[in-house]
Amino acid sequence: MLKEHPELRRRHRWARALATALALAVLALARPASARSAEELLLHFPPASFEILNPSTGQAIGYGKYTVEHVTAGAILKGESHYLNGDYDVEEDEMVIAPGRPVPVLASFRHTFYRKDGSIEREGRADIRSGTGWCETTEHGRQKIESAKFQFPSDTYAGASILIPIQDYLKHGESSAPFHLHVFNCVPEPKLLKIEAASSGETRWSHCPGALVRVRMTPDFGFWNLFLRPFIPKITAWFDPAAGWDFVGGDLERYYRGPKITLVKTH
């Protein structure tokens, strides 16, 4: 048998390597657009720090931060808020990339509110896979836990994870019409609410320079909106279109019927 010339063997190795690289590139390009979009949304949720203000006085009452830990199937969105009086909150949202969904979906949610002595004041949890939600409160040493079963739709979110589908809604220029999603919350018992998010278009906010977009989120009660909405607090969030629709702050309640707070992103 004739031996292959060394130079010819070297060229064959290069050809095989080039073919492998091209095949991998084709496979990457052939991945569903929805998966790429979902990954981009998770990657575009950078670590962020916030100052927490009293909305009535404008005084700082605490600080918070959010980070994203990337895992095989998606990411874990983590949040911490610390208040000057010693209270603090910890939130953890598990996000996964689902086939056919352009936006990451929520798999589990947990938000725990602690007193300054480290005891739990209240906690909200949801396991989307099992369809279960829990709400816990502790007052005067007495613990109360309520649970409920749900048929969670694929557009169910909770806590800070709500920001991800709203960013996608703004990014794709669909803000001329209200956006609807489902939100799990303790009010104070476990509830699955339909939420309407409405954009104002570009406007100004005293806490952040430049042209921003304001999104107001309110429960959608359908026919009963006219009667019930005036009694339901709104969540207002501000996004910066010049910075990839980053969330820069908002007005909300720390928890249902809890202290009102204002979050302002720090740079």
Structure, briefly:
The protein has 267 residues and is of the alpha+beta class. The chain has helices at residues 6-29, 33-43, 163-171, 225-228; strands spanning 48-53, 60-71, 74-83, 88-96, 105-114, 120-127, 132-139, 142-149, 156-157, 179-186, 190-205, 208-219, 235-240, 246-253, 260-265. The protein has two domains: 1-30; 31-265, no CATH class.
Span from first to last CA?
Answer: 70 Å
What is the strand arrangement across the widest sheet? Answer: 8-7-6-5-4-3-2-1-15-14-13-12-11-10-9
Task: Look at the structure and give the mean pLDDT.
Answer: 82
Shape type? globular
| Whole-number tally of structural domains | 2
Class by SSE composition:
alpha+beta
Contiguous helical run count: 4
How many beta-strand runs? Answer: 15
Please state the CA-atom Rg, rounded to the nearest Å: 23 Å
Strand percentage? over 45%
Characterize the largest beta sheet: strand count, sense, and whether it forms a barrel: 15 strands, mixed
Helix and strand pattern = HHEEEEEEEEEHEEEHEEE
> Which spans have pLDDT < 50 for at least 5 consecutive residues?
17-35, 223-231
Q: What fraction, in percent, of the residue positions are helical?
A: 10-25%
Q: Layout of helices and strands, plus pairs?
A:
Blueprint: H1 6-29, H2 33-43, E1 48-53, E2 60-71, E3 74-83, E4 88-96, E5 105-114, E6 120-127, E7 132-139, E8 142-149, E9 156-157, H3 163-171, E10 179-186, E11 190-205, E12 208-219, H4 225-228, E13 235-240, E14 246-253, E15 260-265
Parallel strand pairs: 9-10
Antiparallel strand pairs: 1-2, 1-15, 2-3, 3-4, 4-5, 5-6, 6-7, 7-8, 10-11, 11-12, 12-13, 13-14, 14-15
